[in-house]
Write a structure and sequence with these properties.
Layout lengths: L7 E2 L1 H7 L4 H7 L21 E2 H9 L15 E3 H8 L3 H7 L3 H4 L3 E3 L2 E5 H11 L21 H11 L5 H8 L3 H22 L5 H8 L7 H12 L2
Antiparallel strand pairs: 1-2, 3-5, 4-5
Helix pairs in contact: 4-5, 5-8, 8-10, 9-10, 10-11, 10-12
Amino acid sequence: MIRAGRTAVGRQELADVLGMKWAAFRRAKPYSEAGFPAPVSSAEGKVLLWDLEQVEAYRDGRPHPVIPVGEDDEDLLDRREAAALLNVQPRSFDTYKSSPGLADHVVVVGGAEHWPRAVLRAYDAARGTVTGPQGRPKGSGDMVPRDLLPGRIAELLDANPAVTAAHAVDVLGISTPAAQRHLQQERAVRIAALMRIEPGLDAEEAADRLGYPPALRRTALKTAQQLYDTP
């Protein structure tokens, strides 16, 4: 997390701050030395980030300035932190982040996407909470805003990989074709993602691993293979 009012740097910027050539920096990995400031990025994040003031203090032999604690609306949260705030899995947040409410406010730091805490809170309040069956008034249009629907579908699959389109209709108040289309697409995305993570795994095996019943994955398998084959 990048605290409000602080500046974070990635590896490339860190090398510049320390006055090191990139090749020498990569060999030496000074950030692994004892006493070097701890990263401010997520523990499981792929991109490491450090607080600029702390790095400069380390370089100059000064005591490290303390990073403020406590939540601030201007804090910048990375993908995993944002998912935790919304109480969803990171892979579900990957669907959410394309929504205008989030995509319009993304901040890239050191190659990693971040979102202001205030933006995430506003998005969370707007999307509400998926609850039990609510029913779909006869003749009504889709009740969930289009930009929020992929995230809602992702939540249903997180809770139950075998969720049916009929259940999605009851819970989300959407049409049956919309429920089928979005469930198939989200299953396909997850199947393709697992195939990339585990080379040698075919679409059928990935679907089994994810817990998708045969009757609910036929169309998703074809789409997943197309996604997997696309660079």
